[in-house]
Design a protein that fits this description.
- The protein contains six helices and twelve strands.
- The longest helix has about 100 residues.
Length: about 475
């Protein structure tokens, strides 16, 4: 028994000393969380390639512009080259806007992740602190039990096992023998219980130590992840700031180039009399006008449902020429239109796209102020108005008219638009015949000089008018 108890005591004492001297041991286990950085890097690489291509195009465009002398600037070639540069600038701004949007979305995601991680860290920290307090309490309890057991071991070691035998042999009688025997049994049982209590507390400490190690590892992993995401967030915020500064600089360059292009266009059209629209009107104004027109056209009834005052009923047979009705109904005759300014057939700007990427939604016919403007086909006037801003200045189409002509064989609604007039001769709701005067030509709104901007609209889609005009 003496040998066994000394060995047990040495094991317990060494464990106790290790715990008391070094505290709780923590394991550092580096972890690598899965990420989708490769996908992000690939997306950024694509954007970077686009940026490089645009920068190269801009550089070539700048070199091309430098080849023109000062006297060659008021030419269509120079203006086209300048517009081409502006188109590249627009693309670059769009790309920058996309990059800022992507970075902003990433900032939002990182901010949400950081908020969740912060909550997790606070929760794990509370659990860790609780576990740590429990471990300290176990240490104190173990220390008391250990000290009690150490005293018993020391007493047993000093007295030796022979003292137990002597105590039994020196009994005066059998009664005293059994009394001493029962007392020794009780002491031995108490020693065993004390030993078991020591072992139980060692197991509790070991288990609690394992739990606190787990919490510590989880806490460190969360904090590392939080630090990484905060660094990413800071980097994305710096990226956004840098790109916003770049956007501001590009917008200044763009505004300067646009102003130069419009000024040169005004000089060029004044020399050639080939008037048209300025290419860089306020985009918000354009949007408002388009929305207003779309609302009018979308609410237009089918000609078969309209009751038109002082005209005969609509002929619904597409094979019979519709000459008496104000509107066509399922007849391609509606697509046979006359020129809006008789005698003026020169086109200063065709339907399609400018060099800057902007769209020209009609065709322009230059003419002197006061030129008669006629309805390209019979119909009903659905819009006749002047667009003015809060300062009284004309903008966009200026004084313009829209006429509804009915439907073609495919049952598509057909409209025509006449813009920049100096005088409007018809009002909303009036019926007009093909070739009837509806306005006098001018240069109101977004115009470099007197001309008719003419559009054909089929089911709310603007198409090339030249395909429907005949003299």
């Amino acid at each position: 028994m003496k040998t066994v108890t000394k060995k047990a005591f040495c094991i317990i004492l060494s464990l106790c000393l290790a715990l008391c001297s070094s505290g709780v041991a923590y394991a550092d286990e580096p972890t690598t969380a899965p990420s989708n950085e490769m996908t992000v890097e690939q997306a950024q690489a694509v954007l970077e390639e686009q940026r490089k291509a645009l920068e190269q195009s801009l550089k070539e465009s700048e070199e091309k512009l430098k080849q023109f002398s000062e006297s060659e600037k008021v030419t269509s070639e120079y203006i086209d080259s300048l517009d081409e540069k502006i188109g590249y600038l627009n693309e670059e701004l769009t790309l920058l806007d996309n990059e800022v949007r992507q970075a902003s979305e990433k900032v939002d995601l990182l901010t949400a992740d950081i908020a969740v991680l912060s909550e997790d860290i606070a929760e794990v920290q509370a659990e860790y602190d609780k576990a740590n307090d429990k471990l300290e309490a176990l240490h104190d309890s173990f220390e008391t039990t250990k000290n009690a057991y150490c005293l018993r071991l020391r007493a047993m070691y000093v007295s030796g096992s022979s003292s137990i035998l002597i105590a039994l042999l020196t009994s005066k009688d059998i009664s005293q023998f059994f009394s001493r025997y029962e007392m020794i049994k009780a002491i031995t049982k108490s020693d065993t219980a004390l030993m078991n209590e020591v072992n139980r507390k060692i197991d509790e400490i070991t288990e609690q130590n394992s739990e606190i190690l787990s919490k510590k590892t989880e806490l460190e992993q969360n904090k590392a992840s939080l630090d990484e995401k905060q660094a990413q967030l800071l980097n994305e915020q710096h990226t956004i700031e840098a790109k916003q500064d770049e956007i501001a600089e590009k917008k200044i360059t763009l505004a300067t180039s646009r102003a130069e292009s419009d000024a040169l266009l005004a000089q060029y059209t004044a020399q050639t009399k080939m008037y048209g629209e300025y290419k860089y009107e306020d985009e918000e104004l354009i949007k408002l006008v388009d929305e207003e027109i779309n609302a009018i056209l979308s609410g237009q009834k089918d000609p078969s449902q309209m009751k038109i005052p002082e005209v005969s009923d609509i002929v619904k047979n597409p094979d019979v020429p519709n000459t008496t009705s104000a509107l066509y109904y399922k007849s391609n005759a509606v697509l046979n239109m006359t020129y809006p300014a008789p005698g003026h057939y020169t086109v200063s700007e065709s339907f399609g796209y400018y060099k800057n990427g902007g769209k020209h939604t009609g065709i322009d016919f230059p003419y002197p102020v006061g030129t008669t403007v006629v309805a390209a086909q019979k119909g009903i006037v659905v819009t006749s108005k002047a667009l003015r801003d809060n300062k009284g200045n004309y903008y966009s189409y200026g004084k313009y008219i829209i006429i509804y002509h009915g439907t073609d064989a495919q049952d598509r609604k057909i409209y025509t638009l006449y813009a920049h007039n100096s005088k409007l001769s018809v009002g909303v709701g009036e019926t007009v015949t093909k070739g009837q005067k509806i306005a006098e030509g001018g240069s109101t709104g977004n115009s470099t000089g007197p001309h008719c901007h003419f559009e054909v609209i089929i089911d709310n889609e603007k198409v090339n008018p030249i395909n429907y005009l005949s003299r």
